[in-house]
């Protein structure tokens, strides 16, 4: 019993070819993203960077305020008035005009300024850390957008290969060299490839939306021209003490140490000097008054705040030690991932070359009738998987470089060679 091969399968393949051409021509109007280095120059405008810069400005303003001395206190006092007898009116009044000034002994002003400076230095380090993190997030989104673009291009190529193989299968079916089942299977493979292409397009669109938002671009971008995935890694000897996380922890510890000095100075009595002029109406005479005043530290010696500041210092020392351990561990892991990803990229590229050759041989063998459709499908699937693995390997290498750069406080891919 024979089956008549109908034309609709060929028509379906033609429609698939038209869809492929539309997908390929769709991004022709695409707006490419600016180079990564150009986006890094604008990272200061990122919300996290602006927040950290504003906090640094606030800390610098507190240094200015810490320099200010206490305002003098002026007072006026009238005695011996509105009483009885000789003091019934204002004829025997004694009026004193005085000025009081806190002397800020015990180097109180100096330690206050020192603490404010330490807080400002810590804020500056936190700003640098925020900028480094923002650059790392931008690099990650940029690399992911490029990877999504490459996966979409691979999906286009996979659909093109699948359609070419489908046409070859349909031709053999029409010639009677293959059963009609092969045409149905080929159509199913083409439909699956089209679905994969649609999924890759959706992922690419989402990745470019994230890049547009993260890079604060005024118009949407739909392509990446500056490649990060093809840049090679540059391994340098890591310096733990230069890591932003450690610098921030050290600055916090110093600020906590300075706060202890402030609390200790506040535990000592405030000495106030008084200078005044007294006018006596009864004697029609003027005299001067001099004096000092200070509270007696019987009850409040600020011990609780001193102990709290000392406990905060111990906490910052523990955080500093934890930061050193974390940076040391993360740097070692990042260097290991970077080395491993470089080897993985080399292996993936070799696998792509072998898979391409195997597919070409399978295609030739299939067209000559020596290779079955299943073997052709296997070789094509292996080629698609190898190309996808090469993209994943490059994305992993870029991610390792971004992590290492963040730990070292530098811009990722800075100085790398393509």
TrEMBL record:
Residues 1-30 form the signal peptide. Residues 299-333 form a coiled coil. The keyword rRNA processing does not apply. It comes from Hyphomonas polymorpha PS728. This is Outer membrane efflux protein. GO terms for molecular function: efflux transmembrane transporter activity. Belongs to the outer membrane factor (OMF) (TC 1.B.17) family. The lineage of its organism: Bacteria, Pseudomonadati, Pseudomonadota, Alphaproteobacteria, Hyphomonadales. The keyword Cytoplasm does not apply. Keywords: Coiled coil, Signal. It comes from the Bacteria.
